[in-house]
Amino acid sequence: ISPDSSLLAFSQTAADRVVEVFETDGATAQSRCTINSPRKDDTPRFSHDGTRIAFVSSRTGSDEIWIANSDCSNPYQLTRLNQTEQVGVGSPRWSPDGRTLVFDRNANGNADIFTIRADGSDLRQLTSDKTTNNMPSWSSDGKWIYFSSYRDSVSRVYRMPAAGGEAIQVTSSIGREPIESADGRMLYYNNGDRLWRKDLISGLESAFPGLEDVTINRYWDVAGSTLVYIPVNSGERLVVRSLDLITHRQSSLFDLPGTLALWVPGIALSPSSRLVAIGYVAYRYGHITLIKDWK
Question: What DSSP character marks residue 173?
């Protein structure tokens, strides 16, 4: 406020979130294309044939799920839920046959699981509990949907039939953001921002070897025998890394060209492991507004 109270000045800052697709040979990577709009674009997920990317965008004024080709061309809006600031949509995942997507929708703090056909038809709500159910994914055979739930005040992994139905608790430890391995034997999940796994045959739950001290937040994905992740430990530069799930050999692929957009799924790996899509904050900008006779 100016000394004579006639002028009011304030600053505003904003961040541009984009989805960038990189092509990698497992050792190096180069940018292939970018999904960008005047609003935020994040949460990329490849279809199982690698030809399409689902992502979340607010380019229409509210968060909705969109789909584009893997070369970032021909984006189209999938959901039309007319989201508001109090209602969010996110965490899209493709079914193995590529016909359906599962996602979560948060209405006034209470998230539930939904499915929708890839052509925008047959929207279904699968959960309606008075608790948070989010971060869904499909089993490798498409018969089950895994998800995180706070049914006992702690986030654990559950699963239910793909068409909906009774949920079964899967992890006894804290768990969220589950992904089943391609062979259906292993379940990978986030345990307090660290990567854990559960052997679905023996039932053993444990921290992933070699990553016990690596904070990954929601920046990780699995396709085939490859894990990609971005360590977000304080003080370290942001590097996209890959890990062979069979040999446990790790490689650094490339530095992230921006900063992380936290609390959303930030990285996706194509089934061929040749494409990596990353949602990140490309740049931040701000401006100062001056208002005269503001009272």
Answer: S
